Amino acid sequence: MIKSLTSFLIIFLIITKAMGQDDQYDACMAKVKHSPKEAFEDALQWRDYGNTWAAEHCASVALISLGLNRDAAVRLENLAAKANLNTDAQATIFGQAAQAWLIANSPSRAKILATKGLKLSPGNIELLIDRAQAHAGLKDYIRAKSDLDAVITKKPNHIEALTFRASTKRFLGDNKGALLDIERALALNIAHVPALLERGNLRRLKGDKKGARADWLMVLSFELKGASAIAARHNLEKMDVTINK
Q1: SS3 sequence, the chain?
Q2: Cα→Cα distances 23→17, 20, 45, 184, 187, Å
Q3: pLDDT in tens, 108-144
Q4: Domain map of the chain by residue range?
Q5: What pLDDT score was predicted for residue 49?
Q6: Does this chain's domain 1-143 share its CATH topology with 156-245?
Q7: How far is the C-alpha of 156 from the C-alpha of 35, rounded, in Å?
């Protein structure tokens, strides 16, 4: 559920438009997609001319694209702490910093930053999901579920939260509750890949190998690359090995 690079530009796109700098920011972010090293260098030069906030954000996203996730996380964290922004914008940057720390495999730091964001923006759905991810990364599935409960209370048809809560319930041993959540998610979108992957996991636990195989094959029919596809392929291979023993 880690957010894509595209999601990192949303709040700053709003800010930079308000500051009259959106064209330069858009150009920097567009370059991240095909030439992140050049985008990073451009952002540093741009920053030196006084456009600090947007430049720092573009530089951070460029570092994520280069695989320098920890460096990006530090930059985003510092930006969230120091930027002279309104409360909602600052809370969002804390969430982005939390996501960057999750990508850098540091859920403990991510939890701290997501919590800081929630103090500024209580009940913020994206921050609750960020913190739930951090809790799950720390194997604290009870707290992860609590944050996801809060999201689903506010937004009952949040498909990502329903899917994520299903997996937390599975880890907590509540397979029946997990299946209820995943069926709700798939009723919203039968082609939702993470939900199909999770339903396959749950069906496998019930002993429904045929149903699990069908779900995992459906995942691969929609997505050949990415985390869900890798997991589905691994599950199919593992199940085949077990059957052939």
Answers
A1: CCCCHHHHHHHHHHHHHHCCCHHHHHHHHHHHHHCHHHHHHHHHHHHHCCCHHHHHHHHHHHHHHCCCHHHHHHHHHHHHHHCCCCHHHHHHHHHHHHHHHHHCCCHHHHHHHHHHHHHHCCCCHHHHHHHHHHHHHCCCHHHHHHHHHHHHHHCCCCHHHHHHHHHHHHHCCCHHHHHHHHHHHHHHCCCCHHHHHHHHHHHHHCCCHHHHHHHHHHHHHHCCCCHHHHHHHHHHHHHHHHHHC
A2: 8, 8, 16, 41, 40
A3: 999 999 999 999 999 999 999 999 999 999 999 999 9
A4: 1-143, 156-245
A5: 73
A6: yes
A7: 40
Residue 100 in tokens: 């960057």
Q: What is the mean pLDDT of the chain?
A: 88
CATH number of 1-143: 1.25.40.10
Tokens encoding 130: 């960020």
State how far the Cα of 225 lies from the Cα of 61, in Å rounded to an integer: 22
Q: Which CATH class is domain 156-245?
A: mainly alpha
Burial of 241 (0-12, 13-18, 19+ CB in 10 A): exposed
By mean pLDDT, which of 27-41, 103-117, 179-193, 200-214 is the weakest? 27-41
Would the pLDDT of 92 be above 60? yes
Distance CA 113, CA 127 (A): 9
Q: Is the pLDDT of residue 16 over 60?
A: no
pLDDT tens digits, 142-189: 999 999 999 999 999 999 999 999 999 999 999 999 999 999 999 999
